[in-house]
Amino acid sequence: MDLTYSKKQQAFREEIRTWLTANVPAEPLPSYDTEVGFQRHREWEARLFDGRWTMVTWPEELGGRGCDLVEWLIFEEEYYRAGAPKRVNMNGICLLGPTLMEFGSEQQKARILPKMASGEEVWAQAWSEPNAGSDMAAIRTRADRRGDKYVINGQKIWSTRAVWADWCFGIFRTEPNSSRHHGLTFILVPLNAPGITVRPIPQLDGLPGFAEIFFDDVEVPVVNRLGEEGAGWSVAMATAGFERGLMLRAPARFQEAARRLVELYRENRASADHDPAVKESVMSAYLRAESYCLTTYQTACRLNKGGKIGAESSTNKIFWSELDQDICSTAMSILGARAELLPHAPQAKGVGTWLDDFLFSQSGPIYAGSNEIQRNIIAERMLGMPRR
């Protein structure tokens, strides 16, 4: 694998760096899990769209730059290095967007993608149900076909960004007597449709990062279906592949976190070195973040040449979610008792966002399909082991 960048890629990196230097807000935005913060992040998405930086891999006519995946990785490196705001529409641009590119009609792409890219329409996930978490094949929420409409009844839960989002995407059971992954259809639903109730769910930090969605005779046009009726499982698995594989968690996210961890260790070395294991954990986290980056570049190059990402996306998901936990746990060890302080506490002295990061990292092995399920997928589909 050639790890040198071409002149074109180097120029692309410089263009990104220049734009971010001129446009990244001087102060961090409020959390997008607050109403004010959500709106501020939506405005940031609009600014990115004006610069055609929302999703650089999209075609130019849809607001992108027609970049390949290596250029996307370069963009992500510069984005995290600049300390730019978190992306409030990740579910849309990184998950639904690529799925629309693969399965959507030209009309759907033209109608949905530009508004998604600009932040005019923010998307939420509607996967899990009370009795169907990581096992999406157990979904029971019904979408009954009545002429040119689906009538949806049921409940979704743990819907990321649903509190203030405009739309949700998910799979619904359109064949009443079907079971498991058969008879499911991928449908796009406006969250302001009559019959929808959105109820916030507090996270560990008390903010409503998730919600449950109740559907009571919600009518949705059939044109909002993505892919064929009954083929929702295949569409959803493509989306899950983007989520677990490349798009949702760029390696730059963890490289930047590992760099911050190294800085934290250096600032607190006198106390941190009382436990020799801390230094080892810092080095391990840094090396694993770099390894994840190199592996992702390798995958991106393979995909650029026409390859596919399949069950190996499950290995990626396990790796980055557990790496995130280890980085944050090591930071907690370095900070000691101060780790429990909020950044604005009088005695905090530079604890930064490590407490928030640590709390969020605990959800990593659960969302995007629990790591237990991912290990089953690896055992069955990659290693050929029998089901028990």
Would you mind describing this structure in some detail?
With 388 residues, the protein is an alpha+beta fold. It folds into three domains: 7-88, no CATH class; 124-231, Butyryl-CoA Dehydrogenase, subunit A, domain 2 (Beta Barrel), CATH 2.40.110.10; 249-382, Butyryl-CoA Dehydrogenase, subunit A, domain 3. The chain is built from twelve helices and eight strands. It has helices spanning 7-23, 35-50, 69-81, 90-103, 106-118, 232-244, 251-267, 269-272, 276-304, 313-335, 354-361, 371-382, and strands at residues 123-126, 142-146, 149-156, 167-173, 184-190, 196-201, 210-221, 225-226. The radius of gyration is 21 Å and the shape is globular. The model has no long low-confidence stretch (mean pLDDT 87).
Summary of the model, kept short:
The chain has 388 residues and is α+β, with helices and mostly antiparallel strands. The chain has helices spanning 7-23, 35-50, 69-81, 90-103, 106-118, 232-244, 251-267, 269-272, 276-304, 313-335, 354-361, 371-382, and strands at 123-126, 142-146, 149-156, 167-173, 184-190, 196-201, 210-221, 225-226.
User: N-to-C SSE series?
Assistant: HHHHHEEEEEEEEHHHHHHH
Strand order of the largest sheet: 1-4-5-8
CATH superfamily of the largest domain: Butyryl-CoA Dehydrogenase, subunit A, domain 3
Our count of domains comes out at 3
CATH architecture descriptor text of the largest domain:
Up-down Bundle
SSE-based structural type:
alpha+beta
Q: What share of the residues lie within helices?
A: 40-55%
* CATH class annotation of the largest domain: Mainly Alpha
Helix count, per DSSP?
12
Output mean pLDDT: 87
Q: Enumerate the spans where pLDDT stays under 50 for 5 or more consecutive residues.
A: none
How many strands, what sense, and barrel or not for the largest sheet? 4 strands, mixed
Query: C-alpha Rg, in Å?
Result: 21 Å
Distance between the termini: 39 Å
How would the global form be characterised? globular
**Count of beta strands:** 8
Strand content: 5-15%
CATH topology grouping of the largest domain: Butyryl-CoA Dehydrogenase, subunit A, domain 3
